[in-house]
Automatic annotation (TrEMBL), chains A, B:
<comment type="subunit">
    <text>Homodimer.</text>
</comment>
<dbReference type="GO" id="GO:0045982">
    <property type="term" value="P:negative regulation of purine nucleobase metabolic process"/>
</dbReference>
<dbReference type="InterPro" id="IPR036388">
    <property type="entry name" value="WH-like_DNA-bd_sf"/>
</dbReference>
<feature type="domain" description="Phosphoribosyltransferase">
    <location>
        <begin position="113"/>
        <end position="254"/>
    </location>
</feature>
<feature type="domain" description="Bacterial purine repressor N-terminal">
    <location>
        <begin position="2"/>
        <end position="71"/>
    </location>
</feature>
<dbReference type="Pfam" id="PF09182">
    <property type="entry name" value="PuR_N"/>
</dbReference>
<comment type="similarity">
    <text>Belongs to the purine/pyrimidine phosphoribosyltransferase family. PurR subfamily.</text>
</comment>
<keyword id="KW-0805">Transcription regulation</keyword>
<dbReference type="InterPro" id="IPR000836">
    <property type="entry name" value="PRTase_dom"/>
</dbReference>
<protein>
    <submittedName>
        <fullName>Purine operon repressor</fullName>
    </submittedName>
</protein>
<dbReference type="InterPro" id="IPR036390">
    <property type="entry name" value="WH_DNA-bd_sf"/>
</dbReference>
<dbReference type="InterPro" id="IPR010078">
    <property type="entry name" value="PurR_Bsub"/>
</dbReference>
<dbReference type="InterPro" id="IPR050118">
    <property type="entry name" value="Pur/Pyrimidine_PRTase"/>
</dbReference>
<dbReference type="Pfam" id="PF00156">
    <property type="entry name" value="Pribosyltran"/>
</dbReference>
<dbReference type="GO" id="GO:0045892">
    <property type="term" value="P:negative regulation of DNA-templated transcription"/>
</dbReference>
<keyword id="KW-0804">Transcription</keyword>
<dbReference type="GO" id="GO:0003677">
    <property type="term" value="F:DNA binding"/>
</dbReference>
Amino acid sequence: MKRSERLVDLTNFLTENPFELLKLSTFTERYESSKSTISEDLEIIRQVFKAREIGEIKTYTGTAGGVEFIPDISDKRSVEFARDIQELMGHQKRILPGGYLYLSDIVGDPTNLKKIGRILAHEFIDARVDAVMTIATKGIPIAQATAECLNVPFVVVRRDPKVTEGATLAVNYMSGSSSKVESMVLSKRALLPGKRVLIVDDFMKGGGTLNGMRSLVYEMDCRVAGVSVFIEGPFHGERPLVDYRSMLRVDNIDLANHAIDVRLGNMFDRA
Amino acid sequence: MKRSERLVDLTNFLTENPFELLKLSTFTERYESSKSTISEDLEIIRQVFKAREIGEIKTYTGTAGGVEFIPDISDKRSVEFARDIQELMGHQKRILPGGYLYLSDIVGDPTNLKKIGRILAHEFIDARVDAVMTIATKGIPIAQATAECLNVPFVVVRRDPKVTEGATLAVNYMSGSSSKVESMVLSKRALLPGKRVLIVDDFMKGGGTLNGMRSLVYEMDCRVAGVSVFIEGPFHGERPLVDYRSMLRVDNIDLANHAIDVRLGNMFDRA
């Protein structure tokens, strides 16, 4: 097989298997080439992926060695993606009676979801995330997109237990916006103890739901690797939730003039 | 830029932008190369993608011309993927009280979802799908994975209207298993008239839910491009649903012996 052909297949193979330690022998066999030839190929890919900000190609030497592709966008690209979504958010037709926002088109589009997933994966790339957690229904696409980018599973919390979940663990939490006590459940078999969990949701008002998921993580004997929300909505008063990162922030929904004030969230404050 | 470097970046660019007609000028500018050079690059990629069953690279000539990457797996790969999932399904720990099956781990894993999405995308590659439809909650990951592979949006039907959905269209349907009349709703703005909709769900018993979605598609002045289900469960009697394709089929759940009889679904009958 020619180098040009190997490079095409190898590039596709690596991007298809992110965060997986692939042994060099996988490739020497696949291409019937020597280790040194494959190493040269990988070096070319490594440089292009670095220059084009596609991600990192890590090589490990020794008997347990191999190569790993770590997809990751740059801070700059992350902001660009967030601005793309911000632009979609600003449309006045999103405003629903009662000041609610219609988001289903955004979180139902694979192109947007890929961007959202990459922003969140970039934000928590060093947090050693073992699993992503969200609550049904609208958080699911965001959790799935993030989990895909981090190559970890995701688990879905529900407001009511279902017969298809088996034994469940339930927690009560205080809704931040209405001060009511509510409950949420998760299948006992969804998470093993000790896992580092990234909590995500689509929209945050008072932060009560996110806090509920936080206590659910602790009750599962797991740890919180991070808390993130796609959109931080307007809220008057002090939120009980301290540490969260938002992608976008809606400060004001002007029902009279059909205008929404959408900004980048606190995730980008450092930029 | 060297050919080897161009091939790496071009391969990644194409796989990142499936089903998009990309103008050749995009690449002549990106790589500061001539059209004939880029055409040669694309020919190399086309051949590798064909040999490795990654997908098809289509080139169109003329002023509206360009190149399009159509990811698609082979029938053979599709069966292999289905067998991978079938193996996961057969585990006795899946059986829950009442004969229900625990599936959340399977549909919460990005690797499995990618396989499921590819099988479904392959099955309906010629059905000119404009959008994928499913019902909350467990159908969502399957719909999202399929929509991603087909690069179309997905819409989520609910059992109850939510304030964040705006105006909704509701239909009543007959639950196939319990013969009760139930209802489901979809946001009016979720689908434009005339769209071709692929209906997917995670589990089918009597098929009533799928039939409900079918009537919802018609009430939206859209058309059904296909109906598919991840798992076809055991059902005694005649299903009111005629035309559907299942990926896996569970014929029997033996509660006494904790055994599940899982086979490939009718999607693979032709093989």
